[in-house]
Amino acid sequence: MSRPGAVTFKGNPITLAGNAIQAGQAAPDFKLHFFEGGMKAITLADVKGKPTILSVVPSLDTPVCQVQTKKFNEAIGKLGDKINALPVSLDLPFAMNRFCGAEGITNIRSASDYQDRNFGNNWGTLIEELKILTRATFVLDADGTVCYAEYVPEVTQEPNYAAAMEALQGQLQTA
Fold first, then answer.
1. 16, 53, 54, 65: which one is catalytic?
2. What is the reported pTM?
3. 65 an active-site residue?
4. Can you tell me the distance from the alpha carbon of 114 to that of 90, in angstroms, rounded to the nearest whole number?
5. Of 10, 59, 93, 142, which is least packed with CB atoms within 10 Å of its CB?
6. pLDDT for 15-73, tens place per residue?
């Protein structure tokens, strides 16, 4: 896993707020927002009970973030309702909802950290210089313990989909 401070954006070093999240630690709490017939919140407590994948992206309005969201949506679709899946960004919930609707993203619930950046700060994903989230992937077990964490070393590159999905599948086998 890359540590905050060891991440670059277009080759330039960036600073990530907070501490790196590592496999084996309890997931930090969060309060994210989504739009579904109105503004709603989702917290760590809401995802406990099922394995969860958090796909963190800078913005769904960028090509790599779109690819990442589509690839995870497709891979996760085969798992049905056995897991929780959240793409997390600082995009407004309305924009995330529009993107997911337009692109047929139906297997994951978009989650925005736009209100207070508590996710970005608590999960070590907020890029201090740009005030957006870095690219990262986390898998949690049903109890909310982190079992996989990846901070993508170069923000413009895609995450390791196979490793994240393997970690998620591993949680389904132990559940």
1. 65
2. 0.94
3. yes
4. 5
5. 10
6. 999 899 999 999 999 999 999 889 999 999 999 999 999 999 999 989 999 999 999 99
Locate 15 and state its tokens. Answer: 């600073």
SS3 for the chain is CCCCCCCEECCEECCECCCCCCCCCECCCCEEEEECCCEEEEEHHHHCCCCEEEEECCCCCCHHHHHHHHHHHHHHHCCHHHCEEEEEECCCHHHHHHHHHHHCCCCCCCEECCCCCHHHHHCCCEECCCCEECCEEEEECCCCEEEEEEECCECCCCCCHHHHHHHHHHHHHHC
**Segments making up each domain of the chain, as ranges:** 8-174
